[in-house]
Specification:
EC 1.-.-.-; FMN-dep_DH; oxidoreductase activity; two-stranded antiparallel sheet; oxidoreductase; FMN_hydac_DH_AS; alpha/beta; TIM Barrel
Length: about 400
């Protein structure tokens, strides 16, 4: 083959340098990218609060490793268009996805829960406000808002919370049942995490490289548990050990069923037995969850419970799953095994820390793109086409 000296007209089409993208949200192609950007935006103690689990974080790792066992069995030459739409508790949703409740949300970004609710509304998926949220139920706006509830020792206060959620237009009540006592979150203990953050020497040194985060913290409304702690004087440790009722039983679930009257979700189910009890108590849905590995260490990976629980009670209530969801392919896998939807917490908090509402919107968009691509590759044109013929867990 003969060779020649390259000419300018041959090189010019190849020399088209692009300006580097400096916006970490626009630059993110995966949730890992948003996670990396988030780690650069907030102090270490805040990032560890999001990332950490209980004790040795065995459950935390198992949650993710369960999804690594997923194997798809694709169908080819299917043709047609893909739709990710579904219904959740009888309401339309653009994705089989719910944004889970997270505490201390304005600690991650000063815009907090309103930014998350705004992104969820634009994406057409439900968002769940936590009892431990930093925005009051009445101050949050959205088209499909759920309210997460811990049962308090003061049943009158619990009833007041339910009435506030009803009056503010929340469409579902989510009872968290896996927190009779707080988990041993070692990272938070070692970091001395408090709300609001205390300006100790370690905190100041950690925050010195995050001046933007500190500026927003110091120039916006003080952090507090807006649902119940009016002056911000209540310590987080007091809430878990003195105010939450560790003696809640299935009778209380039936009581909530009657008191609330609307759709009731029980979050924190970790066995077929308890899923059956939830159905008998009148729950409309259960969340198979170990609290993101933040409560009982060495608990079961929720994904591994989906198929057996679906076989047990899938005809009586909706089944959701959380813990370890990091891609749209994970959502496809969970649905294929029998879940109606996935809940995510850390994934959207990565986006929130990286870029506020835009970051949350980008996290949801990434999951949507990945879910659509997975569905096309696996040969599923609709969410109902995802089933156990296309998804299984390897031994």
């Amino acid at each position: 083959m003969s060779r020649r000296v390259p000419r300018w007209r041959d090189l010019r089409p190849l020399l088209q340098p692009r300006a580097p993208e400096l916006d970490p949200v626009k630059r993110a192609h995966t949730l890992r990218d948003l996670r990396a950007a988030a780690a650069k935006r907030v102090p270490r103690s805040v990032f560890d609060y999001v990332e950490g689990g209980a004790d040795d974080e065995i459950s935390l790792r198992r949650n993710r490793s369960a999804f690594e066992r997923v194997e798809f069995s694709p169908r080819v030459l299917v043709g047609g268009e893909v739709s990710t739409g579904t219904t959740i508790l009888g309401r339309p949703a653009a994705l089989p996805l719910v944004l889970a409740p997270t505490g201390y949300t304005r600690m991650m970004h000063h815009l907090g829960e309103p930014a998350v609710a705004g992104a969820a509304t634009q994406a057409g998926v439900p968002y769940t406000l936590s009892t431990m949220g930093t925005t009051a139920p009445e101050d949050l706006k959205g088209t499909d808002l759920w309210f997460q509830l811990y049962v308090w020792r003061d049943r009158g206060f619990t009833t007041d919370l339910i009435e506030r959620a009803r009056g503010a237009g929340y469409t579902a009540l989510v009872l968290t049942v896996d927190t009779p006592v707080p988990g041993n979150r070692v990272r938070d203990v070692r970091n001395g995490l408090t709300l609001p953050p205390r300006l100790g020497i370690k905190t100041l040194l950690d925050g010195a490289s995050k001046p933007r985060w500190w500026w927003h913290l110091l120039t916006t409304e003080p952090l507090r548990f807006a649902t119940f702690d009016g002056d911000g004087s209540l310590a987080p440790s007091d809430i878990g050990t003195k105010m939450f009722d560790r003696n809640v039983t299935w009778a209380d679930v039936s009581w909530l069923r009657e008191t609330w009257g609307g759709p009731l979700v029980v979050k924190g189910i970790q066995s077929r037995h308890d899923a059956k009890r939830a159905a008998e108590a009148g729950a409309d849905a259960v969340v198979l969850s170990n609290h993101g590995g933040r409560q009982l260490d060495r608990g079961p990976a929720p994904l591994e419970l989906v198929a057996p629980v679906a076989d047990e009670v899938g005809d009586r209530l909706e089944i959701y799953v959380d813990g370890g969801v990091r891609t749209g392919g994970d959502i496809a896998a969970a649905v294929g095994l029998g879940a109606k939807a996935c809940l995510i917490g850390r994934p959207y908090l990565y986006g929130l820390m990286a870029g506020g509402e835009r970051g949350v919107a980008r996290a949801i968009a990434i999951l949507r793109e990945e879910l659509e691509r997975t569905m096309r590759l696996v040969g599923a044109n609709s969410i109902t086409d995802l089933d156990r013929e296309k998804v299984r867990l390897r031994a």
